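Why do we care about 3D structure at all? Because function follows from shape, and shape follows, mostly, from sequence. That is the central idea of this module. The next example makes it concrete: a single protein chain, its amino acid sequence, and then its structure expressed as tokens.
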Amino acid sequence: MMIIDVIREASDEYEIFFLLTAYVEAVRYCDKLKNQPEYMRLLPLAGTIDLEVRIDKLKSELARPSHDPGDKDRLIVREAADIFDTALHRLHALQEEKSMKSQYVENAGGQRRTGVRQSAVS
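And the structure:
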């Protein structure tokens, strides 16, 4: 299983940022010559806005023409963009799930209270 698959299955934001931190540390370790962009290697990750900024920068980097389609550094930038983008989508999905659950709890609580009031009045 690849890290991107684990991120897709992550159960909370802490797990996602733990995985992203591990990925960035691995990139830093393997990039002894510091060929990768600073914003890709910088720690700590500072939340979803930081992640969005990094994704935008990575995608801008990929939008530039490349003379060598097999360029290893460019492939790593593409990999990072995919991993960060997947993490951002998963974070948004988890936030949406959390919001839906809290709305459900609020609605269910209101229905129970309304039901109690109605039976007490009857």
